[in-house]
Amino acid sequence: MKKRRRLTLATRMLILVFLPLWALSGVSIGIGTYYMAEQQTRKLKDDIKLIARAIRVPIGEAIDKGDLATVQRTLNAVFSIGQVYGASVYNKKGERIAAAGIARHDQDDNPLAKKMLKGGEDGDAYQHQAGRRVYSHFVPVNDGGAQLPIMIEVTRRASDFSTSVDRLAYWAWGSWGLVGLLTLIIVLLGYRQAAGRQMAQLTQVMGEVGRGQLKSRAQVKGATELAAIGEALNQMLDDIEAAQAAIEAHQAHEIALNRRLERQERMAALGRLVSGIAHELGAPLNVIDGRARRIAKSNHDEKSARELTAIRGQVGRLTRIVRQLLDFSRSGMQWQTVELRSLIDHALESVGYEQQGELPDYTIDIPDSFQVCVDRARFELALVNVLRNAVQAAHHHVGITARLQPVEKQWTLDIWDDGDGIDGELQAAQLLEPFFTTKPKGEGTGLGLAIVQNVVHDHGGQVVLLPSEQGGLRVSLVLPEEVPS
């Protein structure tokens, strides 16, 4: 389909506004020129008429006395004025008895004079004299109030009228064309200043938006209508951007919910599997530990005793793993308000029983009155796992601090060590995954931080892993002040 060519706004303004106004002014110029030409022609004719009437009395007196010389001098004087092209005096027969100017070169009598004599009144007409087109005005001669059978003719070149009219028309139409050109320039410049630039800027912004640059905004300036269009365009873009942001936020929220649901489903499945395995392993481990204890009592061989002690140590390790698996799979929260310092002390005591060798120094900065609302058993299990990792990783020192954040309506527990830290290539999400461990094979189950993450998540908080200022790792447990619903 052939694309229809559309006119620009400037072209439409020229066609619909400028051209009609210019044409109207042309019509006005034409009418005005016509009437001015009529007035100019009438003025030129009136001048000839006044001259003819001015000389008819002295010429009449001179003719009455038979003084043709005076008549001739009067005609010559009239001709010398400059406005007169010729002058003649006719008798009652229409014969020229005196002449001046171009009339002296015309040998033929003028039949118009005889015609005018019969009427006895003023008259005028265009005619030819000596091959030239002239305008003649005829007046009868009076002598003391009595009309004589004499007619005076005063002529003027017909070209004087056309020249005057042409000059007037030339200046009128020339001025019209010049004013039209200046008006056209003013209209175009005015359009460019009033609307053209703003329209171009709006078009540019729309093009940028069409290319996906939704941050582009139109400048709100210029005429009220264009400013309103710019404001409407900007408002539309703001609404689009807000809608997109809302859609993206909704999508992000859905993704987060799906991830949480997926994690909960995975953790639930894992919990069921772990619970089953733990229960199946619990009874055999108790039997092995009991048999090893009885054998050790009845056997006094030192070498056998060492072997049985080693067996019981491994059984104890497996028992702790089974207990962790059961705690990991446990669901349900039992909230109670407790002193945080008391939980820390119990957790440190449990860790102290597990560790062999010299323990690191502890720095605890927690007021005795610092109370929190948690599931005591589960949260103490999380503390034990964090402190166990810190004690095992520390060289000399472990720090424990707690702080309240009223603005955020949450509190944070920081546990750090001065150990070697973790590999910079590892991410926090990896360390929090179940069964992921950085310890040598046989020394870690990979459930410690996973249990911590699960317990803190159930409390409505989060676990943050960052390098500590002392060189090791800082584990921050961030929990809300209020109990999650």
UniProtKB/TrEMBL annotation:
The chain crosses the membrane at residues 170-191. The keyword Phosphoprotein applies. Pfam families: HAMP, HATPase_c, HisKA. Its EC number is 2.7.13.3. Residues 193-245 form the HAMP domain. Coiled coil: none annotated. The keyword Protein biosynthesis does not apply. SUPFAM superfamilies: ATPase domain of HSP90 chaperone/DNA topoisomerase II/histidine kinase, Homodimeric domain of signal transducing histidine kinase. This is histidine kinase. It comes from Vibrio zhugei.
